[in-house]
Design brief:
2 copies of one chain form a homodimer. By secondary structure, the first copy, chain A, is α/β, with parallel strands linked by helices. Chain A is built from 17 helices and 19 strands.
């Protein structure tokens, strides 16, 4: 039902593997972060459960197979291939880094080992699914660090690349440390705390602002957040102050947040509303948040939308899905790509994270520290429930806290040391010598 | 079933409207492009059918309503509101600019008029859905113009912000003039031509490159596109040339495309393969395409992925959904937002496109040229089938061709003149005077 959501060449290759008698060969593919996203010192892995769900449900519907038959690329393909597609399922093994793990350039995120057709078709979905959530989680972690303890609400679904991407982005942002999201479906589906009270249209729908504030408070009680900037922020603040509690606080969505937050704070304090909080939103990113925090603006919470939901300064990442091993009748052959800067390294791998460095080793090697890649699916079955979203979020917090300070700053820092094991280096040399 | 895919504040406002006795009030909201995306001279409207589909199916499932009841924000809301949600449907009117229309800063894309709760809840979905496809269609149109007649294949699903976004992005790119897509689901669902033959993994799965080329040709015949750069591009070209036809041609995915394409062309020609085409892909955008075309590189087709599928240089756009009218018992009140730079203009509008300028007028005014906003839904029903995807694509081609040259260049050009009608200017003045 979901197997057409892939690049056509995965399917023409599938036909080719089938027609070349290779369909029983086992292939191992590796998803690797070739380059970190721009401006990032690490990538925070996210998106695994959606990929697992995809693999567990991988199949073709009859009308999808009929569609493939109509394509000129499949004109020479034998009927047996389409029969094969009818019963097609994923029966292979998946090893992956847990969500919430910071990763560095050159490191594998997952390894997939299966009959070659089953390993080839998921490429497109895996690359997109993992890369997107990883981008958003990484951006969120930067915003959270910049806010220095003040909560960040993810407000970006309206700016995301489709509403569904907004929902998955909310999930990723929560792993990255956001306190919650405005996306209600993300709350329903993933149990993420949801936030939000009223927009400018609420205020505009009443003939007078005071009436709008009063009515909102009547409905929301101590969840009330009065939005101040529909007409004039300070005038709005005076009205909200006059109205008094109950309220959570107020929100500013435009203007000079540093100056306005101080003036609004004074107005609220003067009215005895010391407990009313100030939230700001509108065109925020990690750099603006850091500046406001450094300048001591009296802001209690940030809402971040556009920049977070589209990872605007780094909307993509150099990730690849490359064949690293082929196994025919139990005999392995290691594969790599050598052209130019876009090379890949042969063989299934493991990453060991020690206190001061990562070692990329061959799978099966012993190493010091935590082995990051873990078995997820064996023979097409989930071996144990995946960590919960809360566990992934806690892992992210713990592992980011363990990073050296210079990797948690917003500017590029000295990269975390990532080296190759001696065994891997030997394999690289051998494979290059054997090519062709 | 889809109504939770919205920001929570749309739903707390819905509760507020309900509790304030405003649920029968009619509201008119306008979706406006406040600022064009960075580096763009126009935005090419796309995404309407998905939004219409959303509105036609807007509803809450019982477990979704149960979820809302558990939220602290709804603790004070009366049971009647949740009963109301159970039967909630969209019963309003939608006016929209057809897909494939170039739009400019300040112009409305759609107007939605409905009982206020029905008009409020769709905000998040509409903003995300229309903005995303519009961004991709706009980027595609630039790539197509830069390629000066050579076809462009959209190859970006693996880089899109979720695989589903890749599928909708493929749709938008086709409206923008791309010749096809690698996304198979987009072909199945929307009838877009699909393209693709083999990846590096195909070549790597065989012990020798020549064998890989031969097997691919056997399966794909004259659809064959040999990928040359797995090991060494020119060596690959010599092998493909030796093998000869049938083939569509070859693809280069890395290296210096200008130099390599000339050398590969010579190798193919020398082997009598003058009809074999050369496609290039890998890190392309409209600027690199223009340069290759200007330099006369013998390239017949381009595959564009990352930069197109994420609209990487402009991954978001300043679009807003603002309340412009409220109607109580048949009496209209016009609304606007005045704070700072983020203002909005009152009243439902129409845009008239004449040969030399656009006039933003009040809806119901007469004007010269084409009226861009058309009725789509009336009373919650589709009044006629929407234009097909092919019609949208043809409209885009026709309307882009009618733009002055300086707006079709890649660099920022003198903006298309957009003025307000006298009646609209009068309304703006009156509304500002009446505020509060």
């Amino acid at each position: 039902m979901n197997a057409l959501l892939t690049d056509l060449y995965e399917l023409t290759m599938a036909a080719g593997y089938f027609e070349s008698g290779k369909f029983a060969e086992k292939a191992t593919f590796e998803f690797t972060i070739r380059r970190l996203p721009a401006n990032r010192n690490y990538a925070l892995a996210a998106g695994l459960p959606q990929v697992v769900d995809y693999l567990l449900n991988l199949s073709f519907a009859p009308d999808e197979i009929d569609y493939l038959r109509t394509l000129p690329q499949f004109a020479r393909v034998s009927p047996a291939f389409f029969d094969y597609l009818r019963d097609f399922r994923f029966t292979g093994d998946l090893f992956a880094v847990p969500e919430g793990t910071p990763l560095f350039a050159g490191e594998p995120v997952l390894t997939l080992r299966a009959p070659v057709i089953e390993a080839q078709i998921p490429e497109t979905y895996l690359l997109s699914g993992i890369t997107f959530q990883t981008l958003i989680a990484s951006k969120a972690a930067r915003c959270v660090d910049a806010a220095a303890g003040r909560p960040i609400a993810e407000f970006g679904t309206r700016r995301a690349h489709t509403p569904e991407a907004g929902t998955l982005g909310a999930r990723a942002a929560y792993i990255g440390g956001c306190a919650g999201t405005s996306n209600t479906l993300a709350g329903f589906r993933y149990g993420i705390p949801v936030m939000g009270t009223a927009a400018h249209s609420w205020v505009m729908s009443f003939p007078c602002e005071m009436d709008a504030f009063r009515k909102l408070q009547r409905v929301l009680g101590d969840s009330t957040v009065q939005l101040l900037d529909t007409y004039d922020t300070l005038e709005g603040a005076r009205r909200a102050a006059k109205l008094g509690g109950p309220m959570w606080g107020v929100r500013l969505d435009s203007g000079d947040f540093d100056s306005l937050s101080r003036q609004v704070r004074a107005i609220l304090d003067e009215a005895g509303l010391q407990h009313a909080k100030i939230m700001v939103s509108g065109d925020l990113d990690e750099y603006r948040i850091r500046q406001l925090v450094r300048d001591g603006a009296p802001i209690d919470a940030f809402g971040v939308g556009t920049q977070l939901a589209t990872s605007a300064d780094a909307p993509n990442m150099g990730a690849v899905y490359k064949l690293v091993e082929v196994e025919i009748c139990g005999i392995k052959r290691f594969t790599a790509k050598y052209s130019d800067a876009k090379g890949s390294l042969p063989g299934a791998k493991q990453v060991f994270r020690d206190v001061a460095r990562d070692v990329i080793a061959r799978s099966g090697e012993c190493g010091k520290g935590e082995a990051l890649l873990r078995p997820i699916l064996l023979g097409g079955r989930l071996i144990e429930p995946l960590p919960t979203l809360e566990q992934a979020r806690a892992r992210a917090a713990r592992m980011i806290a363990a990073l050296p300070d210079h990797l948690r700053q917003l500017e590029p820092g000295e990269p975390w040391p990532v080296i190759e094991s001696r065994e891997l280096r030997e394999l690289i040399g051998q494979t290059r010598a054997n090519v062709r």
